[in-house]
Design brief:
This protein is of the alpha/beta class. The protein contains seven helices and six strands. It has one domain: Flavodoxin domain (Rossmann fold), CATH 3.40.50. Strands 1, 2, 3, 4, 5 and 6 form a six-stranded mixed β-sheet that branches. Strand 1, helix 1 and strand 2 form a beta-alpha-beta unit. The protein starts with a strand and ends in an 8-residue tail after the last helix.
């Protein structure tokens, strides 16, 4: 039997663990759908819980970032989860993008990407506009770093963030059609990941 697919979520919530995060909750919903409907195992990483220093290199100051990159490279699907802050992705997601710059330099120099034949996706939450701008920013970054992007590569929830519990938030997801979007997202991400595993893109010198 083929190996099950692996997905990793990099979640850029700025909230502490004890505070409800809409972004983390939606990532958990998507991970559950990936598991139950597509047999994809997921790991969710809250970037706030790790020591990730500013910079543009993979290795710097003996922090936690290199171990996160290793998990990304070992995954078939990489999903960035971000809240909207002032119309843009969170500072933690931006820091992750900046720390991946060295791998982009490697791709430009060698024609080879550590993320070739991996599928990218995005989860976004917020109570303000900006989702389309964030999708454009992150998908552009992913594409130029070797990821392949399927149709419907994002799941978005925009709504009032005040006074929710996890259960009431999931009911909002149901009413707004977010679960339907998440099922389409999961199907497309898993389908393309399996396709690329069996039919990988050639890289330089292949």
């Amino acid at each position: 039997m083929p190996q099950p697919l692996k997905a990793i979520f990099l979640v850029g919530t700025l909230k502490k663990k004890q505070v409800l995060s809409h972004t983390l909750t939606l990532c958990e919903v998507v991970a559950d759908i990936l598991k139950s409907q597509q047999d994809v195992e997921s790991e969710i990483i809250r970037l706030r819980d790790y020591n990730i220093q500013p910079g543009t290199r993979t290795e710097t100051d003996d922090d936690d970032w290199p171990s996160i990159v290793e998990k990304m490279i070992a995954s078939d699907i990489v999903i960035f989860g971000t809240p909207i802050w002032w119309g843009i992705q969170s500072s933690l997601i931006q820091r992750a993008i900046e720390r991946l710059d060295e791998l982009n330099d490697e791709l430009l120099e060698t024609g080879k990407s550590e993320f070739a034949n991996k599928v990218g996706g995005i989860v976004i939450t917020g109570d303000e506009d900006g989702a389309e701008h964030i999708i454009g920013n992150i998908l552009n970054f992913m594409s130029w770093n070797g990821f392949t992007i399927p149709p419907a590569p994002s799941v978005t929830f925009l709504g009032d963030a005040s006074g929710d519990t996890k259960e009431s938030l999931k009911k909002k997801f149901q009413r707004r059609g977010v679960y339907d979007a998440a099922r389409t997202f999961a199907r497309n991400e898993a389908y393309l990941a399996r396709l690329l595993r069996d039919n990988p893109f050639p890289q330089a010198d292949d």
